[in-house]
Amino acid sequence: MWWNQSRGFDNSAMEGVPVYADVDESSILESDSVNSKLEASYLSYYEEKQQDGAKDSSDFTLAIPSEDYTAISAEGTEVMTDLGGKPGKVLALKAEDSWVEYTFTVPADGLYQMGMEYYALPGKRSSIIRSVKIDGEYLFSQVKKMEFQRMWKESAEPWLDNQGNEFNPKREEVTGWQYREFRDAEARTADPFRFYLTKGEHTVKLEAIREPAALSELRIFSPEPLPTYAEVKQEYENKGYKPVQNQVIKIQAEESSLRSDPTLKRIEDREPLTEPFNKDAIVLNSFGGVGWRTGGQWAEWDFEIPETGLYNIAIRYGQWFLNGIPVERRIMIDGEVPFQELNALKFPYKAEWQVNKLGNEDGEYFFYLEQGKHTLRMEVQVSGVGGMIEAVLNTTHKMSLLGREITQVTGTNPDPNGDWQLEQNIPNLVPRLHLMARTLDDAVQDMYAFGVADGSSELSTLYEARDRFLEMAKDTSSIPGRLQQFTDLQSSLGLWVNGLMKQSIVMDYIEVKSEDQPWPKDAAPWYTRVGTMTYDFFSSFTKDYSGIGNTYKNEKVLDVWISRGRDWAEIIKQMVDEDFTPNTGIKVNVNIIPTLAADQKQILLLANTAGLAPDVALGVEGEVPIDFAVRNSLVNLNEFSDYQEVAERFRAGALIPYKYDNGDFALPENQNFTMLFYRKDIMAQLGISEKDIPNTWQEVMELIPVLQQNGMDFYYPHAPNNPSLAINEFAPFLFQYGGDFYKNNGMLSDLDSPEALTAMKMWTGLFTNYKLQKQADFYNRFRSGEMPIGVADYSTYILLSTAAPELTGWWGMKPMPGIEQADGQINRSTGGLAQTGIIFKDTDMKEESWEFLKWWTSADAQENFGSELESLLGVEARWNTANVEALKRLPWQQDDIDAIMEQWEWFKEREVVLGGYYTTRHIANIWNEIVLNGKFPREAMEQGVREINKELSKKREEFGIETSQTSSAKEEGGQK
User: Fold this and answer.
1) Average pLDDT, the chain
2) What strand order describes the sheet that includes 298-305?
3) Which among 4, 12, 14, 15 has a CA at the least distance from the CA of 453?
4) What is the 3-state secondary structure of 825-892?
5) Which residues pair with 678 in a beta bridge?
6) Region (Disordered): which ranges (predicted)?
7) pLDDT tens digits, residue range 156-195?
8) Distance of CA 519 to the CA centre of its chain
9) Cis preceding-peptide flag for 243 (omega within 30 of 0)
10) What is the Cα–Cα distance from 752 to 759, expressed in whole angstroms?
């Protein structure tokens, strides 16, 4: 038996496992009704057509002008003239869901490819998404989301702060016509899609999914395979091309002329050979890194060739992101891939800088370049591991199905010692486990064949899942005790896929040279690097890391503290220096403080007590402003004449937590939102259409038994290990029934009202009467299918958008359920307390501080910040601004933003009062008493209200503020 020595996994584990070679896998997985409802993947479609004998067509090219359509949507389209310097008419699809259909004829059965010439119109800065139907059908899943990028460039040279540190300039869009074939948006296949068409007439329908764009022409053509390098080399020899001499053209990677995505930017590298290098300051001397990782992203460089002839090309790069796994790029010169080997060029892994000398085992490649200007484009390619990714994703889908079948038999918390007779109750249980294990084992072997280093830690997830499947197949009675492990494995495989699809490299420069010139050096000697590290270490004791960008001393300057990460603060400071200061003349220093709520509050309190508070603080947690307002430490924003005008930027309910003693003491920067998430595939499997997704809590309660009968459950958040969240979990029910937390201007708790009691009964009833799980990881159980529907917040939206690639297109989001009112409206009230901006009262720049806060919370600034943040960090950092207009401008898909805006119509936040932490504490206690201890709701509520009222009075007395007792005494005195 041979073992993988570095990881301890047995590479002979599949010996003796049946191959099932003579069995149709679909018959073994006959219960996989979910997959039968979905289109096949492109790889499955293409493989099936090849097995059916389909061949590439030949000698066919057809260009259909965009205005020669046969049908068009009634709205959302426009015929434009002379767009982008192109004479004549073109058709624009401007609105989401607009479409155009064309009719064409092909001369023979065969495989054809398609592409289109397009022009990106002003939108939300995102790439254009289109889907295509052939003869009324999506032939495979990837045609439902094809991506066509915009073009971006730097708006200026990098700027330097007054400490000599370099910063990225803004990226601005470049308009112009582009051509792109219909390809996989995630670049899992190297070639454009091949569509099988029979001889005769067909229709092709283009649908707008995201962003407006004009179409010049649609092209349908026969595939043209790329030549191999050997063929190209022979052509060079036949034409008598000769290598040049004494030529070196160095192209600095950070000076990219065009890129597909504003997230692609200059970055800093401290390796001494990286050019240019400055030991005393930040120099953005390389390109790419973690931002250049997503399939289809490209960057382009211009360079000048002084002499016609044959050249070599080298790329100095770093690829230390995927342990032991090569990453790929498609290389294009002057818009064409020169030969097959560059369609998916590998960049091997190494924990330091390398030089990729473009070539193969026979030597370096030659490139024929004529004198003059040329372009070189590099595009992220994932085709080398595309088959493995698909195999693992298919396995996660099968795991999801099998997991649901198991829980239908055992329930979600089975007795691991019970005799559940799973083999008798679940068809083909053991063969299915064997097939999943073999799929993962094949993926491991394919990864090794691709070039993964032996012992790479990146393969441990596949080994682990394979071995667990084999163990379950060997002893099926152990499966009930392994349900959590099974779910965790599914999550791990999904994360493995997500990680493998992020193919990052960082580049220093591209060198085009003659063969007689030496190749560039990989990395600096170890002693040089140690010297640089030592210098950096000692320099760190004298550098100020809290200040961002330009810092001013001995001047009148606005002091702004930001409780966010450095990347966030750098964007804000850059916006200040480029926009706010030039337009207002107000200079600003920006400093970073901790983001943890407790640390943030402590630092601000200490600074305020010591007389060192800033003028403005941003990123302040939503419950903090009232703590400072009651201490008379904040400026009442009502003092400014235009406060009401500024307040209209937000939902009225978003301002409630910042009101105290008839004043307003903060502006919201961002805010959370709570939505209903659901799995489209599983809902369809249960016979529940999209229009039947619950709108009210009554409909939810009707759905829960259906879910539980099928081994699934509904999710409503509850965090037993974090009682402070209980108030947010209860608030929607309270608000939807028309209740509130406090009365008498925050003097007393209002939780003894009939509305509050009804709300508490409904909230706790979900856990007592309907037996919802008291604690669950919704994200992972949503992925596994155990909880295919539930209520969650913005963080879940981000997780599903970025870390669940296997669910792309399988989930949806709607406003959260509510209570139907007498007039038929559904009250969906809920809040989403987040971060705020405040002005400290000790400031001697009150008007300047207000100007800053107005500027920062404006729609333009919030849109700019959100766009720059997403450009820098990707969709996982999407800014959930509280400014309603700015939120609409950010690159949400229309269905998502429509759902969010519908939910925001009911946005209502709770009041923050002195002693309110007792409300938070006792709502958690009340839940525990009712759900865990069986106490009657009224009894638990009355007991909790008594304790809350005591603390409210105590805290108000502590600060010398009127209490309910003093108020009553005044009233009695007045009556006498």
Assistant:
1) 89
2) 171-174, 151-154, 258-259, 298-305, 372-381, 327-333, 345-347
3) 4
4) CEECCECCCCEEEEEECCCCCHHHHHHHHHHHHCHHHHHHHHHHHHHHHCHHHCCCECCHHHHHHCCC
5) 789, 812
6) 956-976
7) 999 888 788 888 888 899 999 999 999 999 999 999 999 9
8) 39
9) no
10) 11
So what's the pLDDT on residue 696? 96
Q: Can you list the alpha helix ranges (DSSP code H) found in 513-595?
A: 526-539, 566-575, 581-584
pTM: 0.82
| CA–CA distances in Å: residue 31 to residues 404, 433, 516, 709, 786 | 11, 14, 64, 17, 17
Nearest one of 145, 169, 51, 48 to 96, comparing CA atoms: 145
Query: What pLDDT sits at residue 549?
Result: 67
pLDDT digits (tens, 9 = 90+) for 313-368: 999 999 999 999 999 999 999 999 999 999 999 999 999 999 999 999 889 999 99
Q: Which two tokens stand for residue 356?
A: 């990729």
The angle subtended at Cα 247 by Cα 244 and Cα 248, nearest 5°, is 140
| Cβ pair 439, 391 in contact under 8 A | yes
Rounded-to-integer distance, Cα 129 and Cα 134, Å: 17
Continuous segment of H or E residues that includes residue 968: helix 964-975
**Residue 524 and residue 530: Cα distance in Å, rounded?**
10
- The whole-angstrom distance between residue 391's C-alpha and the CA centroid of its chain comes to 23
Q: Is the pLDDT of residue 723 over 80?
A: no
Alpha-carbon span 487 to 396, nearest angstrom: 10
In whole angstroms, what is the distance from residue 663 CA to residue 648 CA? 16
Please determine, for residue 966, whether its predicted confidence score (pLDDT) is greater than 80: no
> CB-based burial of residue 942 (10 Å sphere; 0-12 exposed, 13-18 middle, 19+ buried)?
middle
Q: Provide the 10 A C-beta neighbour count for residue 184.
A: 25
Residue 242 phi, psi dihedral angles, 5° rounding? -125, 150
Give the torsion sign (CA, 959, 960, 962, 968): positive
917-927 helix and 726-736 helix, angle to the nearest 10 degrees: 90
